[in-house]
Design the sequence.
């Protein structure tokens, strides 16, 4: 359930607020091979929940109850995770905590799926959502990153999109040497009437994975978007870009040059990036350390381990 009520100015403008989300999750996850040969990277566990569940929970927490998963070959187990399991539920009748944890996965949101038959880029994947979302604005949540639930980002993005009717992004600051991994934007101050929502900026240009020399700033696109329905037409008109792929960044930049307003919220909360082994490990450790049930024991062990010979800690 959203903690944010409807925004009067958006209502006055008659603009709908996004109520659906799309999670592109068809990728091959070559960075995690061979673990991801048979298991989708979105199902790698962070403590006792798969990454994808944290992402669906983030959407649900923002009031989004309709989620389209864009899947690919060999990845249908992602959908099973959110399906009912009456046989398992029956066996867990005497274990209420586990039963509740299993049922929770079924009740978070209505999950729909569609297939991206070949992986031609993020823009190409999002294009497959057109018949599900139609003309309405919708959120996109990338399947390998999520934010800390106590520092939410999506509610403010949904609010901002309802007010502007345009494209809404989120940025985080990166080391200038790392621009080649992200979409990077140039910005200017946002209109005064939008700044009550948060640290809002107006985007004046976007480029996908620039070298540090080409990068217009160190503001990187975070894997959360709220997009108007006209993005689909822009995707159709977008040629392959960085890496030979049809990039969502390029489609959004096309809309911007044609007059669609593009704004972003600069996110200064905690972002977990599970897309690469190091970020995945950092995510597992941080979330485990904060868990109420096992955090204190884990932190104690971790501190001892880091200071022990076994960790190599004394050599560095
Ligand atoms: C994608 C986007 C990129 C964005 C990044 C965030 O890249 O294309 O603009 O900055 O996600 O994680 P990918 O990680 O799919 O290469």
Sequence:
């Amino acid at each position: 359930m959203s903690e944010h009520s409807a925004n009067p100015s958006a209502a006055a403008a008659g603009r709908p607020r996004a109520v659906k989300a799309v999670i592109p999750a068809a990728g091959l996850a070559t960075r995690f091979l061979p673990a991801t040969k048979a298991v989708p990277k979105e199902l790698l566990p962070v403590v006792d929940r798969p990454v994808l569940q944290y992402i669906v929970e983030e959407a649900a927490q923002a009031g989004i109850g309709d989620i389209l998963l864009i899947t690919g070959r060999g990845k249908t187990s992602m959908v099973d995770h959110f399906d009912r399991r009456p046989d398992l539920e029956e066996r867990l009748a005497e274990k209420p905590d586990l039963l509740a944890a299993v049922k929770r996965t079924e009740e978070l949101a209505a999950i729909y799926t569609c297939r991206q038959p070949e992986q031609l880029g993020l823009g190409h994947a999002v294009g497959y959502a057109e018949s599900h979302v139609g003309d309405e604005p919708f959120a996109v949540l990338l399947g390998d990153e999520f934010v800390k639930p106590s520092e939410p980002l999506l509610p403010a993005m949904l609010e901002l999109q309802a007010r502007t009717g345009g494209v809404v992004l989120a940025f985080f600051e990166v080391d200038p040497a790392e621009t080649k991994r992200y979409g990077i934007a140039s910005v200017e101050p946002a209109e005064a009437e939008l700044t009550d929502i948060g640290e809002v900026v107006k985007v004046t240009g976007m480029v996908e994975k620039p070298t540090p020399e080409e990068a217009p700033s160190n503001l990187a696109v975070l894997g959360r978007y709220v997009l108007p329905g006209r993005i689909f037409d822009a995707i159709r008109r977008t040629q392959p870009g960085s890496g030979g792929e049809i990039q969502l960044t390029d489609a959004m930049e096309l809309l911007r040059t044609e007059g669609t307003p593009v704004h972003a919220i600069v996110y200064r909360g905690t972002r977990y990036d599970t897309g690469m082994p190091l970020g995945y490990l950092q995510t597992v450790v941080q979330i485990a350390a904060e868990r109420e049930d096992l955090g204190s024991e884990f932190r104690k062990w971790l501190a001892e381990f880091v200071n022990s010979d076994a960790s190599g800690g004394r050599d560095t």
Notes: The domain at 3-275 is CATH 3.90.550.10 (Spore Coat Polysaccharide Biosynthesis Protein SpsA; Chain A). The pocket of 1-O-phosphono-alpha-D-glucopyranose is lined by residues 122, 142, 145, 182-183, 208, 220-223, 247-249, 275 (CB under 6 Å).
